[in-house]
Amino acid sequence: MTDQNTTEQQPSTLPSLSAEELERINALSYEQARDQLIQAVQALEAGGLDLDASMRQWQLGEALARRAQALLDDVRAQLDAAQANQASAGATAGTQSNLEQ
User: Fold this and answer.
1) pTM of the predicted structure, to 2 decimals
2) Of 13, 52, 73, 95, which has fewest CB within 10 angstroms of its CB?
C-alpha cells in the first residue's frame, strides 16, 4: 500500500540568484537597494516578461527588500541605543553621584 500523502520533491527549475548576486546586493547602500527595488517592481508591473524573467525579478526584489530592511533595522537599533544612553545619562545629570565621578 502506498502513502498518498507523500510527494516526491522535484528539483526546482526556477531561476535563483547566485551567491555572487546576493553578495553584491548585500554590499549595496540603502539608497542603492531602494532604487534597484523600485526598478524591479516597475519591470514586474510593466508586464511582458516571461515566467522565468518574472520570477527572477521577483527574487531580485525580495533580496533587495531584505537588504533595505536590514539596513533600516540597523539604524533603528543604533537610534534606540543612543536614546537609551541619553536617557540613562539624563537620569544622573547634575546629581551628586554624577559629580563624584
Assistant:
1) 0.71
2) 13
Closest CA to 38 of 56, 20, 15, 64: 64
Length in residues, the chain? 101
Residue pair 34/68 in contact by the 8 Å Cβ criterion: yes
Burial class (CB in 10 A: 0-12, 13-18, 19+), 66: middle
Distance of alpha carbon 73 from alpha carbon 59, whole angstroms: 21
Task: State the residue for C-alpha cell 516597475.
Answer: 42
d(Cα 75, Cα 26) in Å, to the nearest integer? 16
Parse the chain into domains and list their residue ranges: 19-91
The per-residue pLDDT for range 55-70, each reduced to its tens digit, is: 999 999 999 999 999 9
- CA separation, residue 95 to residues 40, 82, 87, 91 (Å): 55, 21, 14, 8
